[in-house]
Amino acid sequence: MDYFNTDERDKQRSFSKVRDTVFSPLVSLLIKVGATPNQVSLAGVLFLILTSLLPASWPVAATVGMAFYVLCDGIDGPLARRAGKVHAGGALIDIVADQAGVVFLSAAAIYHFGAWGPAMVLFASSYMIFIGLALYANGLGVKLRRFLRCKYVFFLLYLGSLYLARDLVTWFCGAFAAYYVAETIEALRRIHRFHAREHRERTTGGTPAP
User: Fold this and answer.
1) Contact, 66 vs 155, CB < 8 A?
2) Beta carbons of 115 and 62 less than 8 angstroms apart
3) Most buried of 79, 82, 87, 195, CB within 10 angstroms?
């Protein structure tokens, strides 16, 4: 799903309603104990960091840690909506926490089961740069072409690598690194074209150049 363009926003809202219903009892408990959405987001990042630091020989513990990370990512939004704390600052923290898994697990994959460093670095870098550009384009109203989001597949492959004690991520991440580099170039082209058009319109008194 591409939730960064207007075509998918209705689907995202529908998904959010279902998620809010599923997590309603847990959200009610968190409100009772005074937990904030930002605290939940940061708790998820702590679970992620712990998972990255666990020995490769502890795949079950890593799975539990990742489950809590994903759970926190799923809860912070419903908690913010229920508590009336939805705002741009909280959304930014949520986005950073949501995407941090790609960075931490890419590094952990190199250390724990010998994933190829250049592929993992390029994958994490290109993914994060593209996601940042997608958010920027969304704020400008620049429509990007539909794109693939491979984060959860990567998480599963990482855990599978721990269980099997073999590298399952290098080829996958190498392929998606190339894909995100291409999407980054295309996103930059569209954003540049948008700003160039705005500049022409300003300098010609509101009349687009032919």
Assistant:
1) yes
2) no
3) 79
107-117, pLDDT tens digit by residue? 999 999 999 99
Instruction: Name the pTM for this structure.
Output: 0.87
What token pair was written down for 66? 């990742």
**Alpha carbon distance 199, 6 (integer Å):** 25
Q: Which two tokens stand for residue 95?
A: 């986005």
Contacts from 192-201 at CB under 8 Å and sequence distance 24+?
Answer: 194/140, 194/142
Q: Is 180:99 a contact under the CB 8 Å cutoff?
A: no
- Rounded to an integer, what is the distance from CA 202 to the centroid of its chain? 35
- Candidates 175, 148, 170; CA nearest to 158 is 170
Closest listed residue to residue 89, CA positions, set 41, 25, 29, 17: 41
Task: Check the CA dihedral 130-149-30-159 and report its sign.
Answer: negative
The answer for residues whose C-beta is within 8 angstroms of residue 195's C-beta and 6 or more apart is none
Cα–Cα distance list, 93 to 29, 38, 77, 100 (Å): 22, 7, 11, 11
Residue 72 is classified by DSSP as: H
d(C-alpha 58, C-alpha 4), whole Å: 36
Summarised one tens digit per residue, pLDDT across range 30-73 is 999 999 999 999 999 999 999 999 999 999 999 999 999 999 99
